[in-house]
Amino acid sequence: MNLYEKFGIETENEMLYKIAFTHGSYSTKHNLGYTYERLEFLGDSVLSLIVSEYLYNKYPQYEEGKLTKLRANFVCQNALIYYSHELGLHDYLNVSAEESNLTKNEILSITADIFESFLGAIFLDQGLDFAKDYASKVIFKYIDEEKVFFADYKSAMKEYGDAHEVEVSYKILKEYGVPHDKTFVIAILVDGEEMGVGKGKNKKEAEQAASKVAIEKLGVLK
Question: Could you say which of 131, 161, 203, 218 would form a disulfide bridge with 123 (CB–CB 3.0 to 4.6 Å)?
């Protein structure tokens, strides 16, 4: 289905939406001189505002810290990938995978990016109310059902360390792979004792995985 028909968009600025779905690899291959990255930057802020306002109104009893943690769950990369695939945004993506040698993880990251870049384009072209309506249909239902997209195991381990007065630290055991597709293996140490090992495509992901193992071993409640 046509993008504009699918999302009820009436526009005289189709170029804006073309930009929103243009990855750097496609731009380079076709000498276009633009990518979705600036719109992604804008869309990230618009998304944060929309989700923050909804959480602020929905949970008047929550303090700033709890609202911040809650918001992180609904604007994290896993959540954006989920939203993007639900909406079928990948069908409109302009990417040259054969030219850029993109990995599976990088393709997933791009699907998260275009949720934000498309939101940025909608905001510029249609205004904030339209952007809110678009985002609310795919995001608010998951807030209402308290869907977990991201569990912050590392923060839970930090809280455990503070409460029990023990040092929680991380050590890289191994890293391998080409620069654009590395894998990290990291251990979590509690007072110098290894409590878990995790693997991930970046250090944060590996630390989260290691922390999850430690939480299960120590019986720490998230």
Answer: 131
Share above pLDDT 70 across residues of the chain, in percent, rounded to a whole number: 94
Residue that is last in its domain, among 113, 144, 175: 144
44 in catalytic set: yes
Range of the domain at 170: 153-218
**Residue 116 is among the residues annotated as catalytic for this protein:** yes
Q: Report the predicted TM-score, pTM, of the whole model to 2 decimal places.
A: 0.73
Instruction: Select which of 44, 113, 125, 207 is catalytic.
Output: 44
Catalytic: which of 40, 116, 125, 207? 116
Cα 148 to Cα 128: distance, rounded to the nearest angstrom: 27
